[in-house]
């Protein structure tokens, strides 16, 4: 990083009656002012009667071209070399600042620094096309302490002020338009467009007085032109035309123009303060470094300018208040940052304005002591880097092609997969997943293709899952129904825990009496249906969620080994017969009671199994979560414990894992035992059901047999089978009949009905009415078969 002093030039406005107090020494580049020739008042008196101001150059009666060559050209050349630059014009109102910066638009020869700088940059762009110079321009003004964009649209009264921000050590204006310019004419077009939008107003000293500080910026990017270099220089040239200092009594303005003048003076005085503070800070640093000679010079410069600054220097404070106005914020880089700066101080040469001229020269002299730290601004050349990678990729592809040719695989392509290839792969994957094609149908050629295949597999899985969820929703289930289906976790599921089938045993339903899941052992399918099979099944219209065919495949068909006579009855009659047996026979009551007890116990066991099952699954999920978190926390914060590095997060995860694992093991063990008991109990329940049905069938057969013998029928139906022992179907009871409980049959005429009517009044096979209390009334003998008969 190089330190560069700010270069200061003074341009005296041509005058027909120049002051005799002003003496320009062109050889020494100084201006001497003989203050004793001043008549009263005036600036603070120096210790002597002469003031000498040294500058880099004093320009008097020079043309615009000379001004550009002497003051601005070096900064513009530095821009092409990658340095940021700023050229400022400063001075009293009407002293020629705008003339110097913009020039006289009426004559080409009188064009100012801005058009000439634009011309020089585009000349370089044309001369060196290999450098790939790109130019953008922006134009803003600081008006009444607001920053306004002058491009591309006219600044409106309602326009919002922009914000100046510091980015990477440089001041940037947020939201400022930067217009790309391919040619000089284009850049000038934007410049003159901005000129038209500037705030100007007339007063006695200038008919076109600027009421704002204007900054025209050229952003220049330049490539090295060498294919090997991966850097590009990127810098900007600020061309600043400051508004002029105004003595209000001289300009005789009022209203809005007066207000503007006061704000202009205020912002310029902030600029002076910033310069003074910067010098004071520099002097402080030099003093500390014992650079007493330079400090002396600085202090002498400050002496004239700001005694308060010298006092503050003694106090040792070093803060420079750049942020106290928009102008000083904008000029921060120019006054001490990464920039090469030139100040052109414009002044009147007449006696009448000697006070203002001396003020201007003092300010300019102080600025001359400022130093900046300009560097060449480089940034990665994205285009060059891209070119390099494209070249490398092409080389690598050739290398691969060579290797494939040598290993006998010449047809492999390493280019990106086309949409056509991708859809072909998608179809193959669909066929493979639908088990219509084998694994060999999917080609595996290179890494890029494998990655694409994985993506397509994921895509297929996601779409399948979505379709399945939708179908399940349509059929009244939900995604959880499938996910929590026993088949998906067959190890952990204690069996069907929903809707205990045992509850239906002995109950009436639409298909006749329900006998529950007395299923053969091989009723359960070996494997759960695959998602594809489920989707296929769900797509078919005749299947519905809850059918035995799909999700309830655990259910088994009921036993149908009933006596043929029973199936001759219709549904209602069968149900009535079954109820009659269960409620009105001793044996039926005992068996039903036994079945109910067992069923209740089974239900209780299932409930506890269900709870254990939930615990096991929750523990499994917790373990899975912990594993997931563990893998995600590989880059977790590490905490130092003494000398030992300790992963705090991992510790907590380990704790969670241990708790979940022990809960899982405990519940799993208990679940295994419960499942064993459950299976035994289920078997017992099945036996009970079997027994109940068999004895019902026997009872029904006997009743059918005694159809004509009322007394036997009554005796039998009342639970006293001894009365019928001698009957022709004695063998039905297989020896478990209590012969001591025979009751005398009631007279056939007895028509008294006590208790509820439960009998088989519609039974064509039993031509009587059975009433609780053993009253029988013979009815019709021949009744036609019901619709349910077989
Ligand atoms: N060196 C010069 N040679 C010829 N004409 C000049 C010169 N300097 C200034 N002028 C003329 O003086 C008038 C005022 O100049 P200019 O507008 O540049 O002043 P200014 O410093 O920008 O004023 P303000 O601060 O009010 O905007 C213009 O008409 C301009 O042409």
Question: In brief, what are we looking at here?
Answer:
The chain is an alpha+beta fold and 790 residues long.
Key terms:
binds adenosine-5'-triphosphate; 3-stranded antiparallel sheet; disordered C terminus; phosphoprotein; Kinesin; Kinesin motor domain-containing protein; single chain; microtubule; 20 helices
Mean of residue pLDDT values = 74
Tell me the CATH topology of the largest domain.
Kinesin
Main sheet? 10 strands, mixed
Which architecture of the largest domain per CATH?
A: 3-Layer(aba) Sandwich
Low-confidence stretches: 477-526, 541-560, 635-646, 720-790
CATH class of the largest domain equals Alpha Beta
Helix share, percent: 40-55%
Spatial shape: elongated
Strand percentage lies at 15-25%
CATH superfamily of the largest domain: Kinesin motor domain
**Tally of DSSP helical segments:** 20
Task: Briefly note the structural class of the backbone.
Answer: alpha+beta
How does this model look, in words?
- The chain folds into four domains: about 375 residues, Kinesin motor domain (Kinesin), CATH 3.40.850; about 30 residues; about 120 residues, no CATH class; about 200 residues, no CATH class.
- The chain has about 800 residues and is α+β, with helices and mostly antiparallel strands.
- Strands 2, 6, 7, 8, 9, 12, 15, 16, 17 and 19 form a ten-stranded mixed beta sheet that branches. It has a three-stranded antiparallel beta sheet with strand order 3-4-5, covered by helices on one side.
- The protein binds adenosine-5'-triphosphate.
- The site of adenosine-5'-triphosphate (ATP) has 18 residues, from helix 2 and strand 14.
């Amino acid at each position: 990083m190089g330190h560069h002093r700010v270069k200061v030039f003074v341009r005296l406005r041509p005058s027909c009656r120049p002051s005799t107090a002003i003496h320009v020494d062109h050889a020494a580049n100084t201006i001497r002012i003989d203050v004793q020739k001043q008549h009263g008042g005036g600036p603070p008196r120096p210790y002597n009667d002469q003031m000498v101001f040294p500058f880099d150059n004093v320009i008097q009666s020079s043309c615009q071209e000379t001004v550009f060559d002497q003051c601005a050209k070096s900064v513009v050349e530095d821009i092409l070399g990658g340095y940021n630059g700023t050229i400022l014009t400063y001075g009293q109102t009407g002293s020629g600042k705008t003339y110097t910066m913009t020039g006289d638009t009426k004559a080409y020869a009188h064009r100012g620094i801005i058009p000439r700088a634009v011309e020089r940059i585009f000349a370089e762009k044309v001369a060196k096309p290999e450098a790939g110079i790109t130019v953008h321009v922006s134009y803003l003004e600081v008006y009444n302490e607001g920053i306004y964009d002058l491009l591309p649209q006219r600044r409106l009264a309602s326009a919002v002020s922009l914000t100046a921000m510091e980015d990477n050590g440089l001041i940037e204006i947020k939201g400022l338009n930067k217009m790309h310019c391919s040619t000089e004419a284009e850049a000038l077009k934007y410049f003159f467009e901005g000129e038209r939008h500037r705030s100007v107003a007339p007063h006695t000293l200038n008919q076109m007085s600027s009421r704002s500080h204007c900054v025209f910026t050229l952003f220049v990017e330049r490539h090295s032109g060498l294919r090997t270099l991966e850097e590009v220089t990127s810098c900007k040239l600020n061309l600043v035309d400051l508004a002029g200092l105004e003595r209000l009594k001289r300009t005789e303005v009022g209203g809005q123009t007066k207000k503007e003048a006061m704000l202009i003076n205020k912002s310029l005085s902030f600029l002076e303060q910033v310069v003074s503070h910067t010098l004071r800070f520099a002097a402080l640093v030099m003093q500390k470094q014992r650079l007493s000679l330079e400090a002396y010079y600085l202090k002498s410069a400050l002496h004239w300018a700001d005694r308060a600054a010298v006092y503050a220097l003694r106090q040792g404070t070093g803060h420079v208040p750049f942020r106290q106005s928009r102008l000083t914020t904008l000029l921060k880089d120019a006054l001490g940052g990464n920039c090469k700066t030139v100040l052109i101080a414009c002044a009147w040469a007449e006696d009448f304005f000697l006070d203002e001229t001396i003020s201007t020269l003092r300010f300019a002299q102080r600025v001359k002591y400022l130093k900046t730290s300009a560097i060449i601004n480089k940034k990665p050349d994205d285009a060059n880097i891209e070119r390099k990678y494209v070249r490398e990729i092409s080389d690598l592809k050739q290398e691969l092609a060579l290797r494939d040719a040598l290993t006998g695989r010449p047809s492999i392509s390493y280019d990106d997969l086309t949409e056509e290839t991708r859809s072909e792969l998608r179809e193959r994957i669909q066929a493979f997943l639908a088990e219509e094609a084998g694994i060999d149908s999917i080609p595996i050629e290179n890494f890029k293709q494998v990655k694409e295949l994985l993506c397509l597999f994921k895509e297929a899985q996601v779409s399948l899952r979505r379709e399945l969820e939708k179908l399940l929703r349509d059929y009244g289930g939900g995604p959880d129904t499938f996910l929590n289906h026993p088949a998906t976790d067959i190890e952990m599921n204690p069996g069907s825990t929903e809707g205990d089938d045992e509850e239906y045993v002995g109950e009436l339903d639409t298909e006749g009496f329900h006998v529950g899941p007395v299923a053969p052992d091989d009723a359960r399918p070996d494997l759960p249906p695959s998602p594809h099979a489920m989707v296929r099944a769900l797509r078919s219209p005749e299947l519905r969620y809850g059918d035995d065919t799909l999700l309830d495949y655990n259910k088994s068909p009921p036993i149908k080994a009933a006596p043929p006579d029973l199936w001759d009855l219709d549904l209602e009659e069968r149900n009535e017969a079954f109820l009659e047996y269960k409620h009105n026979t001793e044996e039926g009551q005992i068996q039903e009671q036994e079945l109910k007890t067992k069923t209740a116990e089974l239900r209780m066991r299932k409930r506890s199994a269900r709870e254990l099952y939930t615990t096991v699954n929750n523990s499994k999920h917790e373990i899975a979560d912990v594993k997931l978190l563990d893998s995600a926390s590989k880059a977790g914060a590490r905490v130092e414990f003494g000398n030992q590095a300790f992963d705090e997060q991992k510790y907590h995860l380990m704790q969670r894992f241990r708790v979940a694992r022990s809960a899982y093991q405990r519940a799993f063990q208990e679940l295994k035992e419960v499942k064993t008991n459950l299976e035994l109990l289920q078997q017992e329940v099945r036996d009970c059901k079997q027994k109940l049905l068999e004895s019902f069938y026997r009872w029904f057969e006997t009743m059918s047999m005694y159809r004509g013998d009322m007394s036997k029928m009554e005796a039998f139906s009342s639970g006293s089978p001894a009365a019928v022992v001698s009957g022709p179907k004695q063998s039905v009871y297989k020896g478990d009949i209590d012969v001591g409980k025979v009751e005398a049959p009631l007279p056939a005429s007895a028509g008294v009905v006590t208790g509820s009517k439960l009998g088989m009044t519609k039974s064509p096979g039993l031509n009587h009415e059975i009433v609780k209390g053993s009253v029988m009334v013979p009815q019709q003998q021949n009744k036609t078969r019901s619709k349910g008969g077989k």
